[in-house]
Amino acid sequence: MFLAAALASAACTADEPSPQATPPLAEGQAPEEGTPPPLPGRELVGECVNGFTDLAPEDPARAEALRVLGRATGVPPGRFDVVDMRYFEGPESPPSEREYLLNVRRWYVKATVRGGESFAGRFLIEKRSFGAGVAAVAPFDTAGIRSPEWVGFQLVDGGVPQAYPDLPGEWAGEPYDFVTGRDPQTREKVFGFPGLPIEVAGCLEGT
């Protein structure tokens, strides 16, 4: 979701490739306008339209993702210990007819940092023609793509990076539920659609 991710993620810049569970969101279904806010525990499920690739250590695309992650977190790319990394491509969220948004490059990264045992997390990186950055972050010991575990950050003027419970690093901006596009506390609509489109939500299955 780049108008959400590039503007919403504190890590994205235009010039830097910078409880009670509810039923899962069905394949092909997005939250409808006017429906009650979903409860915590909702999982986004869907397809993986173009499949995903497990990137080998020597793959340039892997190094690219770690450079973006390093810029966002201040961690030198060579210090990341990658537990899991997947690369996949797919549409924008919400869908767009603009050519530069028809195909978004995405990486899922689960990593720790050597010598920094307290730094461990899961990251979703997105890249479009005008830049790249970390779109959302989740705690290390979570799985799949479930609300409210994945957090995005809406860019605000004067935002100061700060730490959040269970998330590695420090992030600027207003946090929101990346899976539902809603405020994590009030459940009111921030964007009103999933940050990751259902066409590629399945690419995180089994993570």
Structural class: alpha+beta
Helix content: 10-25%
Mean pLDDT score: 79
Low-pLDDT ranges: 1-38
**Strand arrangement across the biggest beta sheet:** 1-2-3-4-5
- Continuous helix count: 3
Biggest β-sheet, characterized? 5 strands, antiparallel
* Tally of separate domains: 1
Specify the overall morphology: globular
Radius of gyration: 16 Å
Give, in order, the helices and strands: HEHEEEEEEH
Portion in beta strands: 25-35%
* Count of strand segments: 7
Report, as a whole number of angstroms, the end-to-end distance.
20 Å
Task: List descriptors.
single chain; 207 residues; alpha+beta; five-stranded antiparallel beta sheet; two-stranded antiparallel ribbon; 3 helices; 7 strands; 26% strand; globular; disordered N terminus
Structural account:
This protein has three helices and seven strands. Strands 1-2-3-4-5 form a five-stranded antiparallel β-sheet. The chain has a two-stranded antiparallel sheet with strand order 6-7. The model is unreliable at 1-38 (pLDDT under 50). The longest helix has 14 residues, at 60-73. The protein is of the alpha+beta class and 207 residues long. Helices cover 12% and strands 26% of the residues.
